[in-house]
Structures are given as structure tokens and as C-alpha cells.
Amino acid sequence: MPLEVYFNVVIGGVLTGLVYGLMALGLSVIFGVVRVVNFAHGEMMTIAMFIAVLAFSALHLDPLIMLIPIAAVMFVFGYALQVALINPFIRRPEHTQFLLLVALAIIIANTLLIIFGPDARSVQTAYALDSFQLGPIIIDAAKVYAGAAAILFTVALFAFFRLTLVGKAIRACADNYTGALVVGLDVQRLYALTFGLGAACVGAAGAMLVLVVDVTPMLGPSYTLLAFVIVITGGLGSMPGALVGGVLIGVTEALAGLLFTPSAKSMFAFAILVLVLLFRPQGLLGRRLS
Amino acid sequence: MTALLSLDAVSKRFRGLIAVDRVGFTVPEGAIFAVIGPNGAGKTTLFNMIAGAVAPDHGAIVFAGRPIHGLAADAICRRGIARTFQLTRPFPALSVEDNVTIGALLRRPEVGAARERAQELLHRLDLFDKRRRIASTLTLPDRKRLEVARALATEPRLLLLDEVMAGLRPTETDRMVVILRALNRESGLTILLIEHVMHAVMALAARVLVLDHGTMIAEGTPETIVHDPAVVQSYLGAEAV
Amino acid sequence: MTRISMQANRRRMLAGAAATAATLAAPAILRAAGGALRVGVLLPRSGFEAGIGQDCQRGADLAPAILKSLGLPDITLMNADTESNVDTARARAEKLIGDGAQLLVGAFDSGQTTAIAQVAEQKGIPFVINIAAAPAITEQGYKFVFRNFPTAPMILGDAFANQKNIFAAIGAAPKSVVFMHVNDTFGTAMAKGIGAVMPKFNMPYTIAEEIAYDPAARDLSVEVAKAKAADADALLVVSRLNDAMLLTRELVKQRWTPQAILSMGPGWYDDQYLKTLGSLADGPISFVPWYDPHKKLTQVLEAALAKADSNVNLNTNHIFTFEALLVAADAYRRAGSTDPKALAAAIRTTNITDNVSIGPGIAFNAKGQNDKVKDGAIQNRGGKLLTLAPKDAANAKPEWPMRSYLSRG
Amino acid sequence: MIARLTTGVVRRSTVLLALLLGALVAAPWFVNDYLLTVLILILYFAYAGQAWNIMMGFAGQLSLGHAIYVGLGGYVAATLFVRFGVAPWLGLLAAIPIAAAAGAFIGFLAFRFGVAGVYFAILTIAFAEFARIGFDHWDLVNASSGLFLPVREYAHNDLWRLRGDPTMFYYVILAATVVAFALCRLLLRSRVGYFWLAIREDEQAARAAGIDTFRYKMYAVMISAAVTAFAGVFYAFFYNNLFPEQVFGISRSIGIILGPIIGGVGTLFGPILGAFVLTGLAETLNSVMTAFGLDLPGATQVFYGICLLLVVVALPDGVWPPLARRLGVAEDGK
Fold it and tell me: What does the pLDDT look like over C235-270, one tens digit per residue?
């Protein structure tokens, strides 16, 4: 196979991986702080994708412009969800949280089915089918924009957690729950903020993904699973880890598709997950848990 | 008396901090031996190494003539060392009786026999009337007693007690002292305890080891220890004497 | 679009209400004595097959009125959603029969269809399969199960025959193809069949590379890069809707226009495909079970569909769901009774020539399979679907090779 | 006094269980075919839920990929039957060790490398997905085009080859559910059961009490996997077709898990009650929708999700523990 094919495929894998990484980042932020595994993560992204599709079809608003508004809407959704539903479950056993979020996922997916019908929806921007050509190498334009937006969004979030007072307070909560209570932090509000931020990440990722993927109401579970794989590979709770994990999984799937039968490519992503769990359980960039 | 447990130059480091530094001592069979020292002196780390919760970096721990350092906690328990936890860890959702039965099942695979043994021990530790209570609903003193009962149920030759008197009222402390002393006398059970309540240490222990900042600063009979100037200065202070 | 699907749903709700009213009004004893035939329609209208299931339902919803206008007896639909799940499909089939369904129709998916077939067989209730291509279903020796849809080997055979017709008509043919197929039930059945069927047709092309991809694929850029690198003349595909759209977009982005895209499954002719991709949808040729545009009933069905859903082109899903109900009503007329045994006997002797799909008509062999049903070749041109083959059903000449994607608006 | 009270409790629960069992044994004479199918579904989920409960409810190891054992059990027995004519009960003798070996493999990796909690749960999903994709590509089992069992011989019930009418399958799964219940009770009252509970409650304390937690966790995974394997065999022979997507998929794992969680994780009767509640709920919702003529795909599932949500918010420990207290048959502390 010609060498440029490898380049094309790897570059594509990196770019898609960045967007996947941003989606997974939401899961990572929520787990890292609130210690709840969001099994409705993919469904939350589907909501964001449908909002982007609606905004485009009704108002011709480009998903990249809608990125911030959609993230804001999802922030409110996540915040409200945490306050209204999830908060009492934070100290409950994992299987109870699992049931709660699975129920939520069922409700979201089927509500979307009732509202939007089962058909795949997409956004046809002017640049949706553009690609950049550099000699023999062809790069998907929409993926470049989405990948760049994913990096920007992550950097902004990273800065928020490192530089702002609220961000530092949230990190304090994550490190030491009791300690945070003792020094008088409003942990419940910080948790809600965190869940909101996680939802905002997945919202932004959804807005970008509609550029390259069609959305259906039943899209959720496969993305939830993908987010798990990425986040555990990169390190649950680590923000750069999510992006690195996303890129690693993106490139792995791309290369596996090229070298083996593509229908089995996600097997390789799971193989990486298993290896990471066994030999570096804290993830590639995660901190070792005591 | 032969040595049941002996430690030789045992050390443990956590992230550059030396928690236990070349500690060595011998506990004779049938003795009651106390380890005292201020908070952070390395007592619990020392216990955790003997019980197998953490492995020592250096040194040897020999129990009943065989080295046990580096063995897993459950293997060490099966060799005959049982422990309690400083912050009690009963099986919270299970009844008091089931908690102790689980310990007894180690040596008595038959559930009925294990339950009988558990009931005997609950009698001994004044918990029989509370045997149907769920462990998480017990008061702290009861939880401490439950830990002792569960540890005893594994029929140890050596019992490690990590501050079982802390938080007990004086009358309860006295009662515990009586129970432990009786156990020691009747079955020859060797006891190694970490304790802050000096009154209990004085009443129970034949020998006392004092740790400070991970190192041994004294070892001897309780009487000599309380008059040791180094001990008085670093730990006991005026009010304890 | 939202508005339209809501309307469709409301209409369905009304239909359901009417059905329930009918159920309540008709005492069980009177069932056999005439009145409407009660047909249970089982389709995956939620879950991962929701799109296709709901599309099939369109064909079912149109049927009662059209059949009545043909002078066939009344049928009442009892709709049930299998939720794309085998367990649920079986329970729904039992429920429908318990609620008085006298005949079952469904269920698009081979697994769900098998589960329903067993219930139907046990109860002796006739079951007319609308769509499901797994050959095994009619190899079980069932007495009450009928399929008016080709099996995977039949689809392949017709596809190769029609391809050769087209190659002969244009005087050109690809020398090599890349065979891309989705790795699901239908895709694998087709991929397996191709090895056995293709040699019999002495095709002008060789398969340069076979690429199987995941039905849930999020991204097909690698697959297309691999296909492009194989440097073949044309693309031979078996896909579904979502992946057909993904594949097309990747072809555009990776700037590869094959001489032809020859599809042997759904996706490339779907309404959603045409609407979403606009001018980029033009060109692919699908070799699929299809309607004969010259048949009278086709025109009736097309008109009815246009009235109900002006945005939707008539397709395989509608046709075969409709025809399943046609078989039911026809059998009911001839049997003159709703007795399941009489109905099944009547279905066995079905001989409908005035139908919608291509071929001489509907009749079932001893296994309950309609082995007369023929596939067509259709090409997307300007948002419409034109029939290229077989000759007697054709209404257009092929456009060959495909116009380059880059030259389209 | 106390002794009299306890025997009273035991007798009351025995009476209630006997009544339930009697009702279930008699059910085929009183219910129509549809309800019989629903009962089969309920018992199937009750059986599989009990199997999962051994691992999670007793030993505290959260498996979210239990479909792998359903799939292995089903595929092994079905492949042996289709290719070599081996009767399912003999096939079960192959399916059980294979499922248990798969469980042992996953357990060994996880427990040796200290993978626990959420991480363990995700690892189990990963292996189930692994199996799904693997079977999707394995020609011996017809890959993704599905494995179909011949269903010709319907004329008479053949228990040995599991060919027959729903009533036969009903009694088979009823018997299996009863056996699983007895097995769970036996395990829970034995040494291994106590050790599992200790591990579930506090693994470190369990080790301090001398329990070889690695070994007992391995037992839990292997027994749970072995018991689950029969659910797969039953599935294969009842539905007569197997698709990797349907049997190994995450939705099957979730389907198995929901019942015990709703019923009460770690209780003996919870998984059975949970299966009744969930399947009953789904079918009732469906009937209500039909009765109101509301034919809106997805609506049933939305209401189902809302009901799940309400139950888990109102009764986070499941339906059975409070109900058992109300009936005076609480399972003492376990």
C-alpha cells in the first residue's frame, strides 16, 4: 500500500481522536470530581448533536459558532441534573448509580426518538465536504476545524481548573472530599458545577461531531463505551489524558482498520484498554490511586 | 520462654519519609507486649508490616520460627496472627454474630461449629445480647469489642491490638483489661498491643517498647519505661506520670 | 420534518384507536364470521433498527385503504413494536395472537423474524414475512411461514444478471472492483454468497479487495482510503443507510469517483440518502428487490404515498410491507374465512400477478418462499430513482461512468 | 423466645415461597399463551439475575459484561447441536466449563493486577465486546449472519433435545430458577458464602481475617459464569437463533443486571422479584398503551425509564428489603 495512505489515515485518526477526546473529557471531569460514572454520557452528546442540527436547519447557524451556546445549554442541563437527581446518589453504591443513569439514558434516547424520529440527521455546511490537499496527502477540512476547536476548548477548561478560584476549589473537592467540607466549601454546588462542565464538554464535542457524523437517537451507547475506553486509557480524572487517550484510540482504530479487517478495528481499542488496565491501571497520564 | 515473634532491623519508607527505621524486638510466647509512642511514631506501620498489610523494605520478621515478611495479610492470619484495626473495620451490613462467625470459619469450616465458637466469643466480650444487631449500628466501644472477637475467632497464637482502648470509658477499659488478661492466662495467647491509654498498658503489659519518629527509644518493663528520661521527655510528658 | 413525523404519528395513533374500538366492539365468537381480517404488524420501530422499522410501517399504513379500493376485503392493522429485540419480538407476537390477530406480518430483521415464525408455527397462525433475507428462515420446514422477499443468494444472482445486462447495454464494464460490505447479518450473508454465486455468471470483473466494516462504524475514512488505494475501477457495496452516507462523503473528501458504485443492498437509494446528499447522491446503481414502475398497482401505491408523505419516495421497505398485506387480504378473500388454517391454505395457493414488485407476481413454493420475485437495477438521478433493469421494467438508460464528485455543485 | 420467633419467620417465608412456587407450577393451566411467554421471560431474567447476583450481590464484584457468559453458553451448546447433533444437556457440560474458564481468565487478570471497582466493571464490558466482535468474525458459528437451530420437530416435546412447546420451556426455566435459588441459598449459608460477604463488605478486613480473597473472588466469578451459561443455552434453544449482537451486546448485560438491582442486590429473593417487577412493568405499559390506542414508538420505553428512575430514587436498596420487612420475612442481615 502506498505510504501516503498511512499518512492520510494517521492524520485522520489524530483529528477524530481529538474530538473523541473532548467528549471523553466530560466523562473524565465528572468522574474525577463527583466519582460518578456517567452511563448516560453518549445520550447527553446526542442531545447536543440534535440541538446543533436544529440550529443549523432552522437558523443556518454553523455548528462551530453554536459550539459555545450548545456547551452553555448542556452546562445548564448537567447542573440541573446533578442538583435534582444525581446528588443524593453520590455516596450510594456504584450499581445504584448505574441503574439511575441507565434509566436516564433510556429516557433521553427514546424522547429523542419520539421528537425527531429515527432517521439520521446531519448538517451540510459549505465546508462539510472540503478537504485540504498537500501533495499526495488529503486532509478532511471539517475534522481539522473540529480537532482545533477540541484543543482550544480543552485548553480553556484546563486554564479554568488551574487559574480560577472556583476551578481550584473543584480540584480541592476532588482531592479530598472531607477536607473540602471542613474548610467550608459548598461541595454540592461545586459538584453541580462540575457535572455542568462535564456536560458542556460533551455538548461542545457533540456540536463538532455533527460536522463529521450523522446523528440518530440511538447513537448514545456506542459513544458512551468509546468514552470509557478513552478515559481509562488516558487516565480517569486527567484532562490531558483524555485528549491523549482519544488520539491514541483514534490512531489505533485507524491503523488497525488499514492493516486488518476494518470491521474488527474496535477490538484493538478494547485490547489497548485491557492492556492499560492491567499494566498501568491509573491510565497513561493518570495519577496512581492509593 | 521461646520467642514467638521477632523483628530484626525492620524498616519502611513512604515517599522518602522513614516511617519505621531499623526496629527490632522479640515477643516471647505467652507474653503481653505493648508498643507505645506519640502519634506518627510509626506504630501502625509497624503493625501493618507484621500483619502483612504492607511489606517491609528491609529487615526480617520471624513468627514461630519462620520468616513471614512479605507474605500477604491472609496468609499471615492463617499462620496464626490476628489483628484489629485502629479505625474499626467490621463488615458493616452483617450482623455481629456473622462478623465473628466469618472469623471462626477460618479454622472451623463447618458453619454450625463456627457459629457456636462465635457465640462463645460474643459471650466473652459482652456482645452476646447484641449479636443480631447490624454491625454498622454499633457504638464505637462495641465495634472495638467486635473487632477483638472477630480477631480471636481466627484462633491466633498472636493477637495484634491497635488502640482498642481508645474512646472507651474507664470502666469499659477496665473490663477490656480483664478480658484480655483472662485470655492470656487461660489459653496462653500472646498479645502485642499499640496503646495510648497508659493505665491499660501498665495493667497489662509485661514489656513495653517505645517508638518515636520511627526509631526505638526504649524497651523494658512498664516500670522502667515510665521512668526513662528519654521517654518522659518525648512522649509521656508530665501528666502521664 | 419534525412536523411531518408528528403528523404521521398522530395518524397512526388514530388508526390504533380505531383498531382498539373495533376489538372492543367485536365479540370473540363473531370473529370467524367475517368482518375485517385482523393482521398483526410487527416491526422494529424503536431501538437500533427504528429507522427502517418506521419506514416499513409507512407501507403498512397505506395498505388497508388501497386494498379496499381494489375490492379486497377489509383488514385491520394491529401494530406492535419489537424494539429491535428478539425477546420482545416473541412476546409481542404472542400478545397480538392473544389479542385476536389472525395473521402476522413482519419483521424486517432475521433474528426477530425467526422468533416470530416459531410462535406463528406453534399457534398455526399464518405469518407473511415482509423483509428478511437470511436463507435459513424458509429452510425450517414451516407450514405457516411465507416470505415474499428474495433470499441473499437470489439477490446476488439477480444483481449479477442485471449488471451484465447493463454492461452489455453500455458496451463497457469495470475490470476490477473493491467489494465493501457491512459486517451484519445481511452483509455477511451476501459476502458469503458471493463466492458461490459469482463464478456462475462469468463476470467481467475481478474483486481486487474485500473490505468488511462495522455496522456501527462512526467513521469510514480508513475504509475508503483502503478501497481507494486498491486502485479498482468500481465499487461493489452491501451497506445500510448511515454507512452509505458516510461512504459517499468520504469518497468526496478523499476525491475518488469510481467508474460506478454498484450496491446490492439498502442505503444508496433511501430517501434520506437522496435528500441529505443532494447532487452528490446521483450515480450509484442499486441492485435490489424493487417495484416495477409500469405495474398499475405501483402507480396506485406511489400516489397514495405521495399523498400521505410527499417527501418520501416509494422504496423496498414500503413495497414489501404493502405486498405482505396484499397477500393477506387476497388470501382472506379466497378463503372466505378468518380461520388460520384456511388462510394458510389460501396463501399456499396464492397467485397474484397484479402486484408492485418486479417479476411475474407472487406465488409461494413448498417451502413458503416466493421464488419468482425479481430484483431490479435502479439508478439515482436528480433526486429520483430510475429503473434500468430488467428490460421489461426499465424506464431509463444507465448513466455511465459516474460524473466526478468534484464537478458537481 | 427468640428461637421461637426465628422459626416463625422461617416458616412464614417457607409458606410464602411454597405458595409462589405452587402458583407458578399451576400457571400454565390458567394463563394464556401470551402470559406464558411473559412468565418465561420473567423466569429467564430471574434465573440470569440470580447468577449475576452471586458475583455482585454476594462477593461484591460488579460485572457489567455478563452477556459474555450468556453468549458463550448459548453458542457452545448451539454449535454442538447444529454441527454434531449433541443434545443441549450434554452441550451444557461443555458450556459450563467454557463459561467458567472465561470467567476465570477475566477474574485472574483483574484480581492479580488489582483491577477493582469501576475499573473492573469496565474491564468486564471490554471482554464482552471482545467476544461480540470475535464471534461476529468467526465462521464456525456463522459470524454475524447468525446461527440458526433447526426447529422442525415440533410435533412432540423432546426434553432431552429441548425441542418442544412453550409449556415445556416454561417448566425447564422454572426448574432452573428453583435450582438456582436453592444453590444461592446453599452457597450463602456455607463457608464460601460467608467469605464472599466478608469480601463484599470490606476486602482488607476480610484478608485480615485470613480469607484468601483472590481465591474466593475467583470462585465467585467462575460459579456465576457457570450458572449464567445455562441462561445462554436456554436462550439458544428457546429462540432458535443466535446473533453476536443480540447475545453478547451491552444491552443484554444491562437487561440481566436491572432485575437484581431493582429487586435488591445481595438478597436471595431480590433478583426474582426484580424480574417480575421489570418485565411486568414493560408488558403492563405496553398493554396500557395499546388500550389507549397510543402507538408511538419509544413512548413505552420513556415511561419504563421514568418508572426505573422513580423506583431507584424511592427505594435505592431495591424493592425486596422493605417488602420483606413488611411481610415479616426479612433475610437476616444478608
Answer: 999 999 889 999 999 999 999 999 999 999 999 998
d(CA D68, CA D72): 6
**Position C341, amino acid:** K
Distance from B79 to chain D by nearest Cα, in Å? 9
The confidence score (pLDDT) of residue D155 equals 66
Please say whether the beta carbons of A71 and A49 come within 8 A: no
Peptide bond into C215 cis (omega under 30): no
8 Å CB contact of C140 and D152: yes
The secondary structure of residue D296, as a DSSP letter, is -
Q: Which of C61, C137, C184 to mutate to test the interface with D (most CBs of D within 10 A)?
A: C184
CA C116 to CA C97: how far, in whole Å?
11
Ranges of CATH 3.40.50.2300 domains, chain C: 30-150+294-374, 153-290+376-408
SS3 content of chain B, % helix, strand, coil (to 5): 40, 25, 30
Residues C388-400: pLDDT tens digits? 988 888 889 999 8
Q: Do chains C and A touch (3 or more CB pairs under 8 A)?
A: yes
Between CA D127 and CA C402 the distance in angstroms is 44
Q: Return the C-alpha cell found at D184.
A: 444461592
Q: Does the pTM exceed 0.80?
A: yes
Nearest to C221 among A12, A261, A266 (CB): A12
Residues of chain D with Cβ-Cβ distance to B158 below 8 Å are none
Tens-place pLDDT, residues D193-234 = 999 999 999 999 999 999 999 999 999 999 999 999 999 999
Residues paired with residue D276 on neighbouring β-strands, in sequence order: none
Q: Where are the alpha helices (DSSP H) in A82-140?
A: 94-116
CA-based R_g, chain B, Å? 17
Write out chain D residues lying below 8 Å of B90, CB-based.
Answer: 202, 205
Place of cell 457495496: C237
* Cβ-contact C40, C97 below 8 angstroms: yes
CB pairs under 8 A between B and D: 87
The total domain count for chain B is 2
Give the model's confidence band at B237: pLDDT under 50 very low, under 70 low, under 90 confident, else very high.
low
**Residue range C15-22: average pLDDT?**
43
How many Cβ pairs within 8 Å bridge chains A and C?
Answer: 115
Contact D239 C183 (CB under 8 A): no
Topology (CATH) of A3-279? ABC transporter involved in vitamin B12 uptake, BtuC (1.10.3470)
Q: Which domain, by its residues, includes B65?
A: 3-80+156-240
- Looking at the fold, whether B38 and B61 belong to one and the same domain comes out as yes
**Scanning the structure block, which residue is given the C-alpha cell 475501477?**
C233
Residue B126 backbone dihedrals phi, psi, to 5 degrees: 60, 35
D262 touches chain A (CB under 8 A): yes
D82 to chain C, closest Cα gap in Å: 13
Closest chain D residue by Cα to residue B76: D210
Cα–Cα distance measured from residue B99 to residue B119, given in angstroms and rounded to the nearest whole number: 11
Cell of A142: 471539517
CB-facing half-sphere around the CA of D106: CA atoms within 13 A:
32
C24 grid coordinates: 372492543
Put simply, whether A222 touches C (Cβ < 8 Å) is yes
Please tell me whether the peptide bond between C107 and the residue prior to it is cis, using omega within 30 degrees of 0. Answer: yes
Fold of C30-150+294-374: Rossmann fold (3.40.50)
Which of C87, C125, C138, C142 is the mutation pick for testing D, counting most D CBs within 10 A?
Answer: C87
C24 pLDDT above the threshold of 90? no
Q: Per-residue pLDDT for D129 more than 90?
A: yes
Q: What is the nearest CA distance from A93 to chain D, expressed in angstroms?
A: 9
Distance CA D29, CA D38 (A): 15
Q: Are C294 and C386 in contact (CB under 8 A)?
A: no
Q: CA C22, C24, C26 angle in degrees (round to 5)? A: 65
